[in-house]
Amino acid sequence: MIKESSLAWGLDRAVRHLNHGSFGAVPQFALDRQAEYRALMEGAPVRWFVGVPQRIADARARVAPYLGVPVDDLAFVPNASAGASVVFTSLPVEHGCEIVVTDHGYGAVTMGAQRLARRWGGTVRTAHVPLAAGPQEACAAITAEFSDRTALVVLDHVTSPTARFLPVDLVSAAARERGIPVLVDGAHVPLVLEEPLAGVDCDVWVGNLHKFGCAPRGTGVLVARGPVRSELNPLVDSWGAGKPFPAAFDEQGTQDFTSWLAAPDALDVVEREIGWKAVRHNAADLVERGAQVVARAFTAATGEDHRVDVGMPAVPFRLVRLPRGLVLGGHELRDRVLAEFDVEAAFTAFGDDAFVRLAAHAYNTLDDYEDFAARVVPALLEWSH
Ligand SMILES: Cc1ncc(COP(=O)(O)O)c(C=O)c1O
């Protein structure tokens, strides 16, 4: 698709990038805008830093419509992990209480929930959500872990290892009825859904603009609603302390905030040059076709079906089941494939199965997946023997 677009990306054309999900990719225009902001910062640091809170507030106002949320519910944070950390460090101590997570959760965020449970002298309960579970079944599996001691639910909106949606709307509604606060980790969701929080009555939702949104890296967002807002403090306690949410998050000391300021430029340039609706539509279509190409290449060798039913598939991703017998872990596979083939891909696992998690974005073409099928699939088959 990029070939028909005037939009350029900072990607190395010698490397096939099939893993937009992990760290994204940034349009050159947004990188240039960020460089311009940096030049202003270096040219007159005092003028820059005095004006930074207002610039951040202005950037929030431009980003909010892309998430369909009021600007006053929205704060910038460095990334989704930081957003979750804000919640984990801000919530009042709940002695002996439980936190509910799922077995699809992002490992680092789940570890944060475990640390919080230890501080509370409580425990984490992990809901097992079957890979192919639809919304009702997934919701039932999660709410089955609720108890009178549940003080927090941490739920991925789009899961990292399994590339599926979880029914965050249903679970949030059930938690609301019982007065349990919900943190939704929507790291992958901004711009994947037009209005990610529509119908989702959670307390806090965090996401990354540097994933599908293509903003410069280090651009996370935190949306907070209801009474929890007054509890939340930025990770960096600075001159914003004491101000109400979200103004407190606009003042976090001396840092390079240029990625936050260039984020709306990244969103705008993709909207102007291609249109987010078209990006979403094309990514859904392309990743589906790409996954079929890759799955067929495995099937031709193994005779097995390598397609995967994840219940509620998340649009820009598809899983393809890897051949049994691969002893390399996900990161080892990622690193070896990158080193030997110049292909960036994500390898994940759930239960006894391992997968390649394919992604698609505006710069990908079917050729990327055909190349993976032709060069990488034979190697994965060989490594599995
Ligand atoms: C579900 C989920 N949460 C959190 C993160 C962490 O994102 P970041 O490293 O930008 O904080 C990721 C990263 O891929 C993720 O998939």
Radius of gyration: 21 Å
Fraction in beta strands: 5-15%
Give the CATH level 1 class of the largest domain.
Alpha Beta
Estimate percent helicity: 40-55%
Report on the biggest sheet: 7 strands, mixed
**Fourth-level CATH superfamily of the largest domain:** Type I PLP-dependent aspartate aminotransferase-like (Major domain)
Distance between the termini: 37 Å
Give the number of DSSP strands: 12
Number of domains: 2
- Secondary-structure element order, N to C: EHHHEHEHEHEHEEEHHEHEEEH
Written overview of the protein:
The model has no long low-confidence stretch (mean pLDDT 96). The strands form three sheets. Strands 2-8-7-6-5-3-4 form a seven-stranded mixed β-sheet, sandwiched between helices. Strands 9-12-11 form a three-stranded antiparallel β-sheet. Strands 1-10 form a two-stranded parallel sheet. The chain has helices at residues 20-23, 28-43, 45-67, 80-90, 107-120, 135-143, 168-177, 258-273, 276-302, 330-341, 366-383, and strands at residues 16-17, 74-77, 98-102, 123-127, 150-156, 182-186, 204-208, 220-224, 317-321, 343-344, 346-350, 353-359. It is globular and about 65 Å long. The chain has eleven helices and twelve strands. Helix 5 links the parallel strand 3 and strand 4 (123-127). The protein is of the alpha/beta class. The protein starts with 15 loop residues before the first strand and ends with a helix. It has two domains: 28-270, Type I PLP-dependent aspartate aminotransferase-like (Major domain) (Aspartate Aminotransferase, domain 2, 3-Layer(aba) Sandwich), CATH 3.40.640.10; 275-383, Aspartate Aminotransferase, domain 1. The protein binds pyridoxal-5'-phosphate. Pyridoxal-5'-phosphate binds next to helix 4.
